[in-house]
Amino acid sequence: MQFGRTYEEFEVGAVYKHWPGKTVTEYDDHLFCLLTMNHHPLHMDINYAENTTDFGKNVVVGNYIYSLLLGMSVEDVSGKAIANLEISSLRHVAPTFHGDTIYGETTVLGKNMTSKPDRGVVEVETIGYKQDGTIVCIFRRKVMVPTQEYLDARGGDQPGRPTPIPREK
């Protein structure tokens, strides 16, 4: 199983479909709101949402959806990252509700070497969409990733990983 990519492994135009999806529960939404101190009643108060908003029900907080998609993309995009450099755009284009399942995919938009020959910057766009295909979130980011030379100089893909001690029988 691959976790992230080296600079050489990224190809402009490549699309990575992140799997599996995640069904968003009321608990997920409320916990994220509580952890981030976002107590807006649109997310936390069913009575308010049903009687006051255009949606008629609670809307999942957008930053949870963004965070979920960012996490989904790590295995394919930034698992080997040296640094996450920039989020250049973030748009929430449709609401997500409790019970919706979110899927994501990332397209490689560009890549450039840095002034150091052992790393480069990759620009990607990630979209998130619901079970019916409705796009809910789009964001672009730049990630500094190592070359294979960088990894080799530091002990490979998983430096510092211990070797298991055999169990006695």
UniProtKB/TrEMBL annotation:
InterPro entries: HotDog_dom_sf, MC_hydratase, MCH/BMMD. SUPFAM superfamilies: Thioesterase/thiol ester dehydrase-isomerase. Residues 150-169 are annotated as: Disordered. It holds the Pfam family MC_hydratase. Gene3D superfamilies: Hotdog Thioesterase. PANTHER family: BETA-METHYLMALYL-COA DEHYDRATASE, MONOAMINE OXIDASE-RELATED. This is MaoC family dehydratase. It comes from Sporichthya brevicatena.
